[in-house]
Amino acid sequence: MALLALTDENLAYLKHALRSAYPEVKSSHRAEALAAACGFRTNISALSSLKDGSPGWPYLVDVSSDRFSARLSELGYSGIDGSQIPELVRSSDMPDRIWISCKAGDRRRLDAWFYECQRRDIPFLYVALRRKYANIDWDCISTDNRHDDVTRKENSSELVRIMFNAFQFFVHGRAKKAMFDASSFVGGIKDVPIAMVPELADAMFRILCQAIKHGERERIREAKAPMHDKAAEITNESQPHG
């Protein structure tokens, strides 16, 4: 699987890429298979989710090559291999990427990526590639400081625990050299085998973004609470007494 930010631009890119990768499949069937790969029952339900999501806070969905192939099989296409789907999702040409990879020390590429992350209000997460290993680094300085209560203050220790548990799950028995050295705000994972990087980078981004989004929802709820209380007070005062 590969993690995807569900935006109009990303879906448009994937539909175009799938046209080149699977020219034998009808356009409407490619759309249905892509929706299934993203976890939706139909293309219409996928498009509805796009409308429900916020442009600044798009849904994150796991795109499955198995679901893609299975849906095409249901539509009458047998033996189509969907294994290249994760590669398409993680393409460097994807409009709204969630992380990038680059050679260690490529400051120009990293600077450009930082400003994009800042514009989109997402964690600045990137992969620094070496020969056999890579480092996965992140810095939430790219996000609005209203999120600091999640990534830096009282809630951050629980977030670090969740991230470390995810790290242990992925590397257990597979990467003895890998080392988690981070806070939730800034840090990274060192010496990750190249083959393990995509899933682990996806996992770290998902955890950070879900925590930030949850904090944002709580702030909105708390901001609305006084208004609800005042409305209830006015309603109660308007009721006849005695």
Count of DSSP strands: 7
Overall pLDDT metric? 86
Low-confidence stretches: 237-242
N/C terminus separation: 64 Å
Total helices: the number is: 9
Q: Helix proportion of residues, in percent?
A: 40-55%
Percentage beta strand = 15-25%
In the sheet with the most strands, the strands line up as 3-4-5-7-6
Shape: globular
* H and E string: EHHHEHHEHEEHHEEH
Domain module tally = 2
Radius of gyration: 21 Å
**Assembly annotation:** single chain
Structural class per helix/strand content?
alpha+beta
Sheet with most strands: 5 strands, mixed
List keywords for this structure.
alpha+beta; 7 strands; disordered C terminus; two-stranded antiparallel sheet; 2 domains; 15% strand; five-stranded mixed sheet; globular; 52% helix; 242 residues
Task: Give an overview in words.
The strands form two sheets. A five-stranded mixed beta sheet has the order 3-4-5-7-6. It has a two-stranded antiparallel ribbon with strand order 1-2. The protein folds into two domains: 97 residues, no CATH class; 145 residues, no CATH class. A hairpin with a 3-residue loop joins strand 4 and strand 5. It is built from nine helices and seven strands. Helix content is 52%, strand content 15%. With 242 residues, the protein is of the alpha+beta class. The relative contact order is 0.11. The C terminus is likely disordered.
Q: What is the element layout, followed by pairings?
A:
Layout: E1 2-5, H1 8-21, H2 27-37, H3 43-52, E2 60-63, H4 65-74, H5 85-89, E3 100-103, H6 107-120, E4 124-129, E5 133-139, H7 148-151, H8 156-171, E6 179-182, E7 186-193, H9 197-238
Helix pairs in contact: 1-2, 2-3, 2-4, 8-9
